[in-house]
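Dock methionine sulfoxide; give full complex structure.
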Amino acid sequence: MFEIEIDSNTPLNVFYDTLNSQLASLLGGERDLICNAAQFSAFVMQTLPELNWAGFYFARDKQLVLGPYVGKVACTRIPFGRGVCGAAAHSQQTQRVEDVHAFEGHIACDSASASEVVIPIVYEGDLIGVFDIDSPKVRRFSQADQEGLEALVTTFIESTDLEWSF
Ligand code: SME
């Protein structure tokens, strides 16, 4: 249903624009946080090549707690400031790491991971959590990938009720 043929001649920004339209359509009509977080993780894993993990950590009392994801089992809690996810949470800036083994403090949940992008999810100035994407390939993510992934996360934020409520 959401398979995308990647033509190696297609510029990455066009590829991500296509993905973003499909994502808006996938998430349209549903605003539940857990539901959309699960769908978004699966959508990213299904449409982007060379990934081994994609998913969420949500901010809880100065820690990140594991949320919906696709991939191998992962660390459940990460303090703000620890690892790549903690750096994204602490700084509220996207972290793009070309080689995780050269990143001091990297937390190896899946030993296959070699490069990583972590994008903070900020709503009305508050940190809601982070979206983490891992690849088994060193230097998998370019600046264009980062911008494309940030645009996908923006669509997720706009499509979802981010207030936590049970
Ligand atoms: N590598 C991350 C931890 C989360 S896992 O990759 C799923 C980090 O250093 O924060």
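Observed: The domain at 12-165 is CATH 3.30.450.40 (Beta-Lactamase).
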